[in-house]
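Thread: "does anyone have the structure for this chain?"

Original post by V.I.:
We have the sequence but no experimental structure in hand. Need at least a predicted one for the grant figures.
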Amino acid sequence: MHGLRNHFLLAMPQLLDENFAGTLTYVCDDDAKGVLGVIVNRPLKLSLGGLLEQLDLEVETLRDAERPVMFGGPVHTDRGFILHQGSADDWDSSLQVSEEVALTTSMDMLRAIAAGRGPERFMVLLGCAGWQVGQLTDELKANAWLTVEAQDSVLFETPIESRREAAAGLLGVDLRLLSVAAGHG
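Reply from O.Q.:
Generated one for you, tokens below.
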């Protein structure tokens, strides 16, 4: 199965894996090598200002120093990812996910953010989520995830704690009404 790039994965109630239970994941890449995504609704106890300080980046003009850094997933937890609006062409090590959204893993983006020249809309994440070829397909067949085409407003305008519900709303689904049991008639 290919074609989930720029889609949300909403963890179903029966998905009990502690890394993914209750999460909303944004799929950044889906190709013959597998699927790459980032969890967009799990803040860490680390602020953007704190991260930049840990990296010894001189902060010139930082908007939202208290903005939380997000847990992007259990893979590469020592690496930073920046999900942002704009073009991947403007940054090193960037992937254009959709017309409006890119994923960048390079320090030039963090330096620009610290200097107040970064993108207007962004989130910083530590780690990512990855699935080998066929793995996510199997999880979808097991009803572990709901999928829906992503909307930038859910990523960048919706409060963190409301993102999963907002994504479910794109499908017309109320997550409070979902059951862990599946029925077959």
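V.I.: this helps a lot. The chain is about 20% helix and 35% strand.
O.Q.: and The first strand starts at residue 7 and ends at 11.
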